[in-house]
Amino acid sequence: MRTYGEWAVVAGASEGLGAAFAAALADRGYKLVLLARRADALEAVAAGLRGKVEVVTRAMDLSAPTLEAEVREVLGAREVGVLVCNAAHAPLGAFAQRPLADGLRALDVNCRAPVTLSHLVLPGMVARQRGAIVLMSSLTAFQGSPFLAVYGATKSFNLSLAEALWAEAKPHGVDVLAVCAGATRTPGYLKAAKTKAPGELEPKQVVDETLAALGGGPLLIPGAFNRFASFLLRRLLPRRSTITVMGAQTAKLLP
Ligand SMILES: NC(=O)c1ccc[n+]([C@@H]2O[C@H](COP(=O)([O-])OP(=O)(O)OC[C@H]3O[C@@H](n4cnc5c(N)ncnc54)[C@H](OP(=O)(O)O)[C@@H]3O)[C@@H](O)[C@H]2O)c1
């Protein structure tokens, strides 16, 4: 991994992949700004890393309309070298049966927040001619995802946004990467999963592959099985079949 600067910001850092990103970035010497809603869970992540690096935590709701001002205030004059947009809201279930507010919250956390955070840090990165932005996407980005309809659509948004920023920022020394993860054994995923999914990865595997892939991009699918399955689904099966396969897989998570 190149050296991108002094500070890394991880949005959605209180558990799972976000906590794994925080640990891996601390191992690589980055000072950390960690964001999520639960102050106690954030502090627990930070406590394990404070021996290694300086860590600032801020409990905040990334769906809040005040997000830009709040993050500006937390960052102050810190020069952000790495931004990881990891937080997500994933309403599971049939679209028509979920409250509208849940879908709109997914738009705020999964789309509005990455746009806001990237817009806050990218100009400084471009000016310094170095930086990295990771947008967490998903295998749901590549087709409609029944029972995760809004979440899947937001992950397509993340992929598209990352690809565009990758092309705009690369000439300025800034690396942008969309990470289209498959099933990853985070606490959130394990709560919903009743059986083992093919190709499941540990959070650390996803994070290590991600940090190693920075500078390439614009897209990473972590895990050899996931790359192969995604190739088959995207290139060989008709789109209708791919949507059906994804829906059948997600239906296994329904309560
Ligand atoms: N796990 C998988 O199988 C999988 C597969 C494909 C893609 N991904 C992607 O990988 C990323 C992380 O997945 P994960 O399984 O680790 O997710 P997770 O367990 O649901 O954790 C998400 C993180 O985001 C934070 N968060 C959620 N809503 C927030 C809000 N409104 N404001 C602030 N923070 C918020 C959570 O902390 P608080 O609750 O403390 O706020 C938590 O730290 C997501 O973008 C997801 O789409 C995961």
Q: Would you kindly provide a written description of the structure presented here, covering whatever features stand out?
A:
The protein has a seven-stranded parallel sheet, sandwiched between helices. The chain contains nine helices and seven strands; from the N terminus they run βαβαβαβαβαβααβαα. It has helices spanning 16-27, 39-47, 67-75, 100-128, 149-169, 187-192, 203-213, 224-236, 239-251, and strands at residues 7-11, 31-36, 55-59, 80-85, 131-138, 174-181, 219-220. The model has no long low-confidence stretch (mean pLDDT 97). With 255 residues, the protein is an alpha/beta fold. It is globular and about 50 Å long. α3 runs parallel beside α4 (100-128). Bound molecules: NADP nicotinamide-adenine-dinucleotide phosphate.
Shape: globular
Largest sheet: 7 strands, parallel
CATH secondary-structure class? Alpha Beta
Compressed to H and E, one letter per element, the order equals EHEHEHEHEHEHHEHH
The rounded Rg comes to 17 Å
**CATH architecture descriptor name:** 3-Layer(aba) Sandwich
Question: What fraction of the residues are assigned to beta strands by DSSP?
Answer: 15-25%
Q: Could you tell me the number of beta strands?
A: 7
How far apart lie the N and C ends? 40 Å
Bound molecules: NADP nicotinamide-adenine-dinucleotide phosphate
Note poorly predicted spans: none
From the structure provided, what is the oligomeric state, counting identical versus distinct chains?
single chain
The CATH topology comes to Rossmann fold
Mean pLDDT: 97
Amount of helix:
40-55%
Number of domains: 1
Strand order within the widest beta sheet: 3-2-1-4-5-6-7
Backbone structural class: alpha/beta
